[in-house]
Amino acid sequence: MNEGDIGIGSVVLSRKGRDKGDYLMVVSKAHGVVFLADGGARKLSAPKRKNVKHVSDSGIKLDAIAAKLKEGQKVFDSELKSALRQLKIGKGDQK
């Protein structure tokens, strides 16, 4: 996976670890790692640090939330959780 494909607001699928199979959103990134949140188990205030090799890009980007993060506006965990839940329903994934 190319690190350049994933940016803030990208929805990724975890491929390794306890959260394997979960969809999370990239909150920030550094060299070789991304910081992920889902608004539920992983809050925006305490994102999960994960190696970029251990996630798959879904090709979906939450532009509205990404714009808020980049502008420094407050983003609520409930907003993120709701957006990710809608994606799961749209893909037919029942959790």
TrEMBL record:
Domain of life: Bacteria
Keyword annotations: Ribonucleoprotein, Ribosomal protein
GO cellular component terms listed in the entry, alphabetical order: ribonucleoprotein complex; ribosome
Name of this chain's protein: KOW domain-containing RNA-binding protein
Native source organism of the sequence: Candidatus Fimimonas merdipullorum
